[in-house]
Amino acid sequence: MWHDMLSVQIPIVEKVLRTVAVYVLIVLLFRVAGKRGLANLNTFDFVVIFLLSNVVQNAIIGSDNSLLGGVIGAVTLVAINALLNRWLAVDERAVRLLEGTPTTVIDDGLLLTRPLKRLGLRPGEVEHAIRVQNGETTGDVALGRLDPDGQFIIVLKSSAQNATRGDVAELETRLAAIEELLSTLAGRRPGAPRSPE
């Protein structure tokens, strides 16, 4: 029993190469599929992800069903992912190559149809992203873009933004100055009763 669990049935180098090859293939497939696949996963996307792991399983493990073979595959996946993430952290060209660049989908309140079609996004998905980020309509948006990681970044027009604490504090300061000025003017107004001395 222990022998079957720990005996790797294919060469370890082959196991590692199979795992790396499948990892690279999946990365390329997601890169080609685009940012939309990461933005809002719908039912069809979930089906693809669940089935994808099953489809590539045999490509990774080959004829090896041993415990040690599984451990080698798992360690290889985690290691190559860690190395790739560290490479992306230090090389901006690698980020552009492997992840892509942001795509503008809203410019000054207007939905840009060409990028939406290229990304496979529906206007309803963009409108949902606007509402999640405190906007009401596309008209409220100065700039909307889809980042390579699938995040919608929405920059609202200044007229559509909520007041900040700083805005409220500045307004309170101005109101206090106006009240003080009105008090001063009320004391100088002709016919105003003078304070007793």
Automatic annotation (TrEMBL):
Residues 95-161 form the YetF C-terminal domain. Gene3D superfamilies: bsu07140 like domains. Its main location: membrane. The keyword Transmembrane helix applies. It is a multi-pass membrane protein. It is found in: Cell membrane. Pfam families: DUF421 (PF04239). GO terms for cellular component: plasma membrane. The chain crosses the membrane at residues 16-34, 41-61, 67-88. The keyword Cytoplasm does not apply. Keywords: Cell membrane, Membrane, Transmembrane, Transmembrane helix. Belongs to the UPF0702 family. This is Uncharacterized membrane protein YcaP (DUF421 family). It comes from Actinoallomurus bryophytorum.
